[in-house]
Amino acid sequence: MLKAFYQSLFFTTRFYVLLGSTAMLFVVSYFLPPLYIVSELIIALLSFLLVLDIFFLYAAGNQPLEVTRNMASRFSNGDNNDIRIKLINNYRFPVTVILMEELPVQFQIRDFRKKVKLKAGEEQDLHYTLRPVERGEYHFGKTNAFVRSLLGLSQRHVAPLNEEIVKVYPSFLQLRNYEFFSFNGRLQEMGVHKQRVTGHSMEFDHIKEYVRGDDVRMLNWKATARRGTPMVNNYVEERSQQVYCVIDKGRAMKMPFEGLTLLDYAINASLIFSNIALQKGDKTGLVTLAAQQVDVLPSSSKKTQMNLILEKLYAQETQWEESDYERLSVTLRSVFSQRSLLILFTNFESMTALQRQLPYLRRLSKYHLLLVVFFENTELKKVTKDNVHTVEGIYRQVIAQKFAYEKKLMVRELTKYGILSLLTPPEQLTLNVINKYLELKARSLI
């Protein structure tokens, strides 16, 4: 009991300042003896107030302050996640509470400190947000609460909360936002464009009676002759197509952008895109490529597929080796028996890097519809638009323009061999991939 009391009691800065001032007064009283009695009175009063302060803090029992931390069991990577701390003051007088959170090491925040004033019996909620930029397990330490009375000479360390482990998954908050906007028919507000359907290479659905505005080219003459009234064929988009997100985990995807790596952007986009494709009636799957290892999650249109994709994407990490595209083409050729849409998330920083992998990309595009997604270097793009006035600045800008131009040459090189490509900034990856997918659906390429 005495040990617990000793470990929970701390003196405040106010107490040490008053104690130090009194000590200085004792020193001065050596030269001015009348001040000695004043110093003794002050130290006696300070001691009395300190004992009184400690008595007030510990007279309320074992639970003078209730602290509850509420947060989700899993966090969304790259998004702001809410954390709420609930405080209930069981004292019969106002107190000041200082909270110090032991946040996970991934955030590198060592000075988290919140100061809250609570009235007698008051209940108050404290909110703050955290934005993780890495997937994995995050260990939350203790929530340390220090309670001070109105005197403020000492503070009591209330029993902290237990440690918690939170798993950070790919951005499922963005997934929920897309689902909400899709449900309300407001995807255009997020940048997803409706694609106009050209031609009629769609799946036949049913025959219906002609109404004003229907395409007269879709008249079914046999049904019209039988019914004696104009009848037209009705078509819908082709469904149950196999769509795979192929994620390159090589060293090229280690490049950071606004705290997240390119791999994280690809993972977040794959998660949201897979959900959109499932809503469109297609079968979605996942392929990851790291060095010579190729992992395949078979495509499916079941409702449980999203959970499988989420768990699969959770533990993915970039590798420092270059990915083996030859192994990828051989594996996919042997595993996939049906023509599928392959969305390859990768990154090429030079034409030489593309030329090394181009034969294997051409082999993949021979049997599947291949869309190669790679990234603009937005930092270099900023350099190309800067106003420079020095020789060194001009040199840097010319080199940056050369690299930016090479990206456009890569798109042209892929187009020359009939390979679809998408060059996009990392922050617009999800929207651009979804729009490209809707375009391919509208053109009936899949």
Q: What's the alpha carbon Rg, rounded to whole Å? A: 33 Å
List the strand order in the largest sheet: 18-17-14-19-20-21
What spatial form do the alpha-carbon principal axes imply?
elongated
Q: Which CATH architecture of the largest domain is right?
A: 3-Layer(aba) Sandwich
Largest sheet: 6 strands, mixed
| Oligomeric composition of the shown chains | single chain
Per CATH, what is the topology of the largest domain?
Answer: Rossmann fold
The CATH superfamily name of the largest domain is von Willebrand factor, type A domain
Low-confidence sequence ranges:
180-187, 195-201
Helix content: 25-40%
Question: How many strand units?
Answer: 21
- For the record, give the distance between the C-alpha atoms at the N and C termini, rounded to a whole number: 73 Å
How much beta, percentage-wise? Answer: 25-35%
| SS-based class | alpha/beta
Number of separate structural domains: 3
Mean pLDDT over the full residue set: 85
In short:
With 446 residues, the protein is of the alpha/beta class.
Layout of helices and strands:
Blueprint: H1 2-8, E1 9-11, H2 13-29, H3 34-58, E2 65-71, E3 74-76, E4 81-89, E5 95-101, E6 114-118, E7 123-130, E8 136-140, E9 143-148, E10 154-158, E11 164-169, H4 172-183, E12 203-209, H5 221-227, E13 231-236, E14 242-248, E15 256-257, E16 260-261, H6 262-279, E17 283-290, E18 293-300, H7 305-314, H8 325-335, E19 341-345, H9 351-367, E20 369-375, H10 378-385, H11 391-416, E21 420-424, H12 429-442
Parallel strand pairs: 3-11, 14-17, 14-19, 19-20, 20-21
Antiparallel strand pairs: 1-10, 2-4, 4-7, 5-6, 5-9, 8-11, 9-10, 12-13, 15-16, 17-18
Helix pairs in contact: 2-3, 4-6, 6-7, 6-12, 8-9, 10-11
